[in-house]
Amino acid sequence: MLKTFPKGGVHPEEGKYSANSAIEILSLPKTVSIPIAQHIGAPSKAIVAKGDKVKVGDVIAESAGFVSANIHSSVSGTVAKIDNVLDSSGYKRPCIIINVEGDEWNETIDRTTELKKEISLTDKEIINRINESGIVGLGGATFPSHVKLSVPDGKKIDALVINGVECEPYLTSDHRLMLEKAEEMLIGIKILMKALGVNSALIGIENNKPDAIAHLKSLAQNYPGVEVHALKVQYPQGGEKQLIKALINREVPSGGLPLDVGAVVHNVGTAVAVYEAVQKNKPLFERVVTVTGKSLSKPSNFMVRIGTPVSSLIEAAGGLPEDTGKVINGGPMMGKAVSSLEVPVVKGASGILIMPKELAVRKKESNCIRCAKCVSVCPQGLEPYLLSKLTRIENNDKLEANAVMDCIECGSCAYTCPAGLPLLDYIRLGKSRVSQIIRSRKQ
């Protein structure tokens, strides 16, 4: 029997149209807009100014604290200005705008294709290199990777969990990485194991990717301590708490973190980025992005430089279909519709979904019928209907008491609601309010 998590979950239509599309290198745009906040934590501080010349891989914004990350130039050229640019959430954020002039890389980056297996750096040197390289979680959460590897005193880690699930419908960027960059990923996993001082790593992959499972199982035989596990197809299998429960049968407590149960979770894309940083001295300035949709003429997976406008990706995938209803940054379950096609690709952008009008229209809202479907599908065991109601009446004390901060924002509740209620929208708002209250207590 395939492993999975025990509570809730749904089975949305997959639509993995780009699964067989090999990764293509996207041509460089004329300009890039690189946000200085592409991670959880403090925004970085720009260290370049208008008129400065930069190369690919140069630091252009430095981390502003422990929970922060360096930002590197993804192109070579001249800094045009630092200005506020619309991001995928609809807000204007500070960006470093660079005019592209050729493709000259920082000389310290090893651009050879030779696979480098021997890990010469110490555990502390590995963590420092990852920090310097601006690596964050590439599964979407964008938590600075060096922070996850810096285990606090009193905590002991014995399991590294690698997320190759990619349970979000339509997205295939991780799938293609596991097929095309498997060796780099496995070396990256060994690097992460060395940084954490653990002997065990478990890679979880949903069973709808049999080619990736077979490929990695074959290669993993040469990497002691690394195991590949096929998992049941069940959304949101890729949630780190769900993945930990499925793979090592440990339950992260309410309000807790994976390290509370001796585990650290990293995405497969992050593992590849770690290999490139540690073995090739290559910072994180590009990533694989899926561009897909039911009506798209050429669903694709592109290697994209950070700061590239979304319009460039859509054009390379055949252009915007006539029946487009929404363009979503991410997948249909957790992604957000963008208000402009000029928003830049960031470190956490795993996919661009072109949704046709027929699928983009929300259900007409009606009254809650107390069916409790939202409760039965919640993988965290919460009561989404109640959290939504408490948000609407602004009862923040009860929201916190009912563990709103445990919500992983998977969207299973809204997906299954027969009344068409925007449960996730309200819960996100409630989480935002409660989060502000919690932060104010600590000041």
Q: Based on CA inertia axes, which overall geometry fits?
A: globular
Largest sheet: 6 strands, mixed
Mean pLDDT: 96
Strand tally is 17
Q: If you consult CATH, what is the topology of the domain at 123-280?
A: Rossmann fold
| Distance from first to last alpha carbon | 49 Å
Number of distinct helices: 14
Helix content: 25-40%
CATH homologous superfamily designation of the domain at 123-280: NADH-ubiquinone oxidoreductase 51kDa subunit
Question: What percent of residues are in strands?
Answer: 15-25%
- CATH architectural group of the domain at 123-280: 3-Layer(aba) Sandwich
C-alpha Rg (nearest Å): 21 Å
Task: Please state the structural category.
Answer: alpha/beta
- With strands numbered from the N-terminus, the spatial order across the biggest sheet is 1-14-13-17-15-16
Low-confidence stretches: none
The CATH class of the domain at 123-280 is Alpha Beta
Identify the notable features of this structure and list them briefly:
443 residues; Rossmann fold; alpha/beta; four-stranded antiparallel β-sheet; 14 helices; six-stranded mixed β-sheet
